[in-house]
TrEMBL record:
Belongs to the UPF0162 family. It comes from Pseudomonas lutea. PANTHER family: F-BOX ONLY PROTEIN 21, SI:DKEY-261L7.2. Residues 38-183 form the Protein SirB1 N-terminal domain. Signal peptide: none annotated. This is Tetratricopeptide repeat protein.
Length: 267
């Protein structure tokens, strides 16, 4: 099977194997992924963390787990020009640097291996973690506790004062949602680094992993535009138009569609 098929197969397992599926996303971009070496590194990491955790009930070990990961060097990648490696699991393990979602995937995998209850929170702009039914979230970048006031401040820093904290921001992330978000992150990073073919792979995977939104279709349409594929661009613009609820955006999309060549072409 191809890396894409492997990713989808792990996602369809019962229960889904989110971490392995995310590793196959990395393998789709890097043929040199050494799976055996990667799992050896994970086993060493698990032993190191397990030996350092305090003797506490499992429900109280999530924050110590995250703090131990930070003590071992796992930090947010804050490079001025972020690279795709910040979202690829094998590179995150190798470099001990990554985006919040990538660090969260490592923490979730370690928690699962060590029988520590932990779940992902699909918070906008900065992926979070949470012990089920807890009254606070945890920052995957170091383990800081975040209460509603802290989450509102995080939203303010990310998006400004016009985005209020809502219950939907604190929903538990499903495996498919995490992988879709990871794919969106990689799409952005590859496009930022001028690798449009890689970004196109990510953009298409986004749509295979779950329901795509207007922004997803517009992002892929932009890639097709740069790659000079007008018919594929038209397909995505038409879907974006159907999904859009913004009258101004709908007008602009209609005008853009009218400017595209109407003939059929193979790309």
């Amino acid at each position: 099977m191809s890396p894409r098929q492997q990713c989808l197969a792990y996602l369809q397992q019962n229960p889904p194997s989110t971490f392995e599926a995310a590793l196959w996303i990395a393998a789709e971009h890097d043929e040199q992924v050494d799976f055996q070496a990667f799992h050896d590194q994970l086993a060493t990491l698990e032993r190191s963390i397990g030996a350092a955790l305090p003797m506490l009930p499992a429900t109280e070990l999530a924050q110590p787990l995250l703090r131990q990961l930070a003590a071992l060097g796992f930090q947010q990648d804050d490079a001025a020009q972020p690279k795709p490696q910040a979202a690829m699991l094998h590179k995150i393990i190798e470099r001990r640097r990554g985006q919040p979602l990538g660090l969260a995937l490592v923490a979730l995998h370690m928690a699962k291996r060590l029988d520590i209850p932990l779940e992902g929170v699909n918070f906008p702009g900065h992926f979070l973690l949470r012990v089920p039914r807890a009254d606070h979230s945890l920052d995957p970048c170091g383990g800081r506790r975040l209460y509603p006031k802290d989450c509102r401040e995080l939203l303010l820093r990310q998006f400004g004062p016009n985005v209020p904290l809502m219950a939907e921001h604190m929903t538990t992330a499903t495996p498919a949602a995490m992988l879709q978000r990871l794919s969106r992150n990689l799409r952005y990073l590859h496009q930022l680094n001028d690798d449009l073919i890689a970004a196109l792979k990510d953009a298409t995977r986004v749509m295979e992993l779950g329901q795509a939104n207007t922004s997803d279709y517009l992002a892929r349409a932009s890639l097709y535009q740069h790659l000079d594929c007008p018919q594929a661009e038209r397909f995505d613009l038409e879907h974006a138009l159907m999904l859009s609820e913004d009258p101004v955006q709908k007008l602009r999309l209609t005008q853009r569609l009218q400017s595209l060549p109407s003939g059929r072409a193979i790309h």
